[in-house]
Write a structure and sequence with these properties.
72% helix; rod-shaped; mainly alpha; 7 helices; 184 residues
């Protein structure tokens, strides 16, 4: 067997040292505990990008939830408006209701008037207006005003308030209808 020479032993030792250095360098590049300033900077940039991305995702999720809630609210409002329109159409087909505000105001005015002044004026109103206003007045005020109306006017209003058709009195039963007119 041949003996290794000093030169061969030196080369073998240099190779072993070179292998150890190469092994240590590959551990640093593989992400060891201390990779230097460049590695730390890259890790920080990646973490910052991940935080921004997560915040953007949360904002987008919140916007999506708000849009869904708005769509649901608008759909319910649309449905409600359609139901109201359908109900309004049904009311319109059954007979349009006149606004109540003017009648309420007239009821307050006639209630404040003295009954002996309000009766004759009230009697000259259209029968439908009389009925609507009288329905909004207190019963006592209506009774006092009707007491100051003519009997025919009070009867007509009473029948209208009862929801009955007002029938004109026959000519034979009217006071003074059977008497001849005498010239003077």
């Amino acid at each position: 067997m041949t003996r290794p020479t000093r030169l061969m032993l030196g080369v073998a030792a240099a190779a072993a040292v070179a292998n150890a250095i190469a092994f240590a360098a590959s551990a640093d590049l593989a992400g060891g505990p201390d990779t230097g300033r460049l590695g730390a900077s890259l890790r920080d940039a990646t973490a910052q990008r991940d935080r921004v991305s997560a915040a953007d995702k949360r904002r987008l999720d919140m916007r999506e939830q708000a849009v869904r809630a708005s769509e649901a609210r608008l759909a319910s409002q649309l449905k409600q408006q359609q139901e109201e329109a359908a109900a309004g159409t049904a009311k319109g087909a059954a007979g349009a209701q006149a606004p109540a505000v003017p009648y309420d105001n007239l009821a307050r005015i006639y209630q404040r008037m003295k009954p002996n002044r309000a009766g004759p004026i009230f009697e000259k109103l259209d029968l439908d207006v009389q009925r609507e206003v009288a329905a909004r007045m207190r019963e006592q005020a209506t009774a006092q005003i009707m007491a100051n109306m003519s009997p025919n006017g009070a009867v007509a209003l009473s029948m209208a308030m009862a929801g009955r058709k007002v029938m004109p009195a026959p000519a034979a039963t009217r006071p003074g209808a059977g008497r001849p007119v005498t010239p003077k």
